[in-house]
Design goal:
With about 575 residues, this protein is an alpha/beta fold. About 35% of the residues lie in helices and about 15% in strands. The protein has 23 helices and 22 strands. It has a 6-stranded parallel sheet, with helices on both faces. The protein has a 6-stranded parallel sheet with strand order 11-10-9-12-13-14, with helices on both faces. α11 runs parallel beside α14 and α16 crosses α17. The N and C termini lie far apart (about 75 Å).
């Protein structure tokens, strides 16, 4: 019989059993025992971030780049509460993650002890599962449960709160290989009758359209989507989170739809007679006014979470299934459809209103020009974005090829996500370039992570679209609020802008280049591509008057697009 071991030793044993090779951590009083145990451990890389919110975003980037369940470790109190925004972001974008928080000793819980918070209660609505370990002999089972829940079904974050005394008490040394979780039965099959019904509906359509979301990527179903769509000869549009699940050079791919979707894609959604949606929850950024969404279509909705089906859009054929399982079966049935006329109509819409931006700005560089330069120089890079206008320009103009990831904050839309997520993605996939597209506003929310990138020698090409403004809100003020630009200009009253990103980067010994003219874009990107084992900053000056178009005003139909 094996000897009992401390909770802290079991913690490390659990990580090794789960195949964890990287953990994103920040120390504090209630996890010093675990941190000490990690010091003695080989084979697990510990990334010390500079803020707990950033740690979670780094873990998100790592999970997206690797497909693994990411791990975060923070202390109690503010260490735990600082993770909440990142946890919510991971929850809404279905990122598999286990967050371990330290907690005050059991006998102090409920006594308002120093740095005591009920983090499990605080995060109950934004985690798949949360628990405080109150019995040392239950610790192994609870950790195993956490990893199982985080990575199965619809993935998401799990929080495990470990009191300080649990970390030092000895107990059961075993870490289970599997646990049965009462009431938790993620769907691993598909109802064939419903799937055939959905297929027949699509097969009989005159104007069919596939809408693919991030669930296709999460399920690893990209190849099956391409196979199915190609066999059927059916056009495909994607959500922003679905960008990259369909090859962008496919003649069947018509781009993103939604608030800033392509004209042809939004017209196709409006005019189709069958909308076959898979792996999307139909949020308001995709649907516009619900009553006018796909008004001529019968709708199929395939999603692994039954609770997401008919929650926002009432559908005709619901199918609860993993996207890959569903598409594998559908590909078996698939037969070519006569869609040439429909595809020709979509091409005509694209020709009428092609995606593009004017290039006659008096100041700055056109964002489309920057994106096209990135496509040319970094055609194999994983692309990470922050949140704002630059995010939408990237979704419009960045062209993804096989093997590239488009990593962005979709459901929560978290400014400050980009830089740490890019760090995590680079840690997870060091053989591939990682390029960040960010704005000057969002970048400043977690710019302290430059210290992490420099000390850990993490190569990220940071492209700042610098318009000296909070651009997306400014755009709404310009279009809908009479150009009353309140608290969106980040410049000082004298016109100076802080910080000077080149001087700021220099303080970290980080290479930086300010780019002010279009003919400087390609040389700057090529110079950045030469930098190895360190981040590099490219400060692209763009005009605050550049707009993300098309645009559908919130609450209006997709057919009512602002085009210029």
């Amino acid at each position: 019989m094996a000897l009992n071991i401390t909770g802290r030793k079991l913690f490390v044993k659990a990580l090794k059993e789960e195949g964890v090779d990287t953990i994103f951590a920040y120390p504090g009083g209630m996890i010093t025992d675990i941190v000490d145990e990690l010091y003695k451990t080989e084979g697990i890389r510990v990334i010390l971030g500079r803020h707990e919110q950033a740690l979670v975003h780094e873990a998100e980037g790592y999970a997206r780049a690797t497909g693994k369940t990411a791990v975060v470790l923070v202390t109690s109190g503010p260490g735990a509460t600082n993770t909440i925004t990142g946890i919510a972001d991971a929850y809404y974008d279905s990122i598999p993650m286990v967050i371990f928080t330290g907690q005050v000793p059991l006998h102090l819980i409920g006594n308002d002890a120093f740095q005591e918070v009920d983090i499990v209660g605080m995060t109950r609505s934004i985690t798949k599962y949360g628990v405080t370990v109150r019995n040392r002999d239950e610790m192994g089972r609870l950790i195993k449960m956490g990893f199982q829940v985080a990575s199965t079904g619809k993935p998401g974050p799990v929080l495990i709160d470990i009191p300080k005394d649990i970390q030092t008490i000895t107990g059961d040394p075993e870490y289970p290989s599997h646990v049965d979780i009462r009431g938790y039965h993620p769907n691993e099959t598909v109802h064939i009758g419903q799937l055939k019904k959905a297929y027949r509906l699509l097969k009989n359509a005159s104007r069919p359209l596939i809408l693919a979301g991030g669930g296709v990527r999460i399920a690893g179903a990209q190849k099956k989507l391409l196979e199915f769509a190609t066999k059927m000869n059916v056009p495909v549009t994607t959500t922003v989170m679905g960008k990259g699940v369909m090859p962008e050079d496919s003649p069947l791919y018509i781009g993103n739809c939604g608030m800033h979707g392509r004209f042809a894609a939004n017209k196709a959604v409006t005019e189709c007679d069958v909308l076959f949606s898979i792996g999307t929850r139909f949020n308001d950024r995709i649907t516009g006014e619900l009553d006018e969404f796909a008004p001529k279509a019968q709708i199929v909705h395939v999603d692994i979470a039954s609770a997401s089906i008919s929650r926002n859009v009432v559908v005709d054929v619901p199918v609860t299934a993993d996207a890959k399982i569903a598409l594998e079966r559908l590909a078996e049935y698939a037969e070519p459809m006569k869609t040439e006329e429909w595809l020709g109509t979509i091409r005509q819409w694209e020709n009428e209103h092609p995606l593009g931006m004017p290039t006659s700005n008096k100041i700055g560089i056109c964002p489309q020009t920057i994106c096209e330069g990135i496509n040319q120089v970094f055609s194999d890079a994983n692309i990470v974005t922050d949140v704002g206008q630059h995010q939408m320009w990237a979704s419009q103009f960045i062209k993804l090829h096989k093997g590239q990831e488009f990593i962005t904050s979709g459901g929560l839309g978290t400014m400050g996500f980009g830089f740490p997520a890019a760090i995590g993605a680079a840690v997870g996939n060091p053989k591939k370039h990682t390029l960040l597209i960010t704005g000057d506003g969002g970048f400043q929310m977690n710019m302290q992570e430059m210290a992490t990138a420099m000390t850990e020698k993490i190569p990220v090409v940071i492209c700042i679209f610098n318009n000296s403004n909070l651009g997306m809100v400014r755009q709404m003020q310009q279009l809908f609020y009479g150009k009353r630009y309140e608290i969106t200009d980040l410049s000082a009253e004298d016109g100076n802008y802080y910080p000077d990103f080149v001087k700021w980067a220099d303080s970290y010994n980080c290479k930086a280049i300010r780019v002010t003219e279009p003919d400087q874009v390609i040389p700057a990107l090529k110079e950045a591509a030469k930098v190895k084992g360190a981040p590099v900053v490219l400060d692209f000056v763009v005009s605050p008057d550049d707009l993300v178009l098309p645009m559908v005003k919130s609450g209006t139909p997709l057919s009512e697009m602002i085009l210029r």
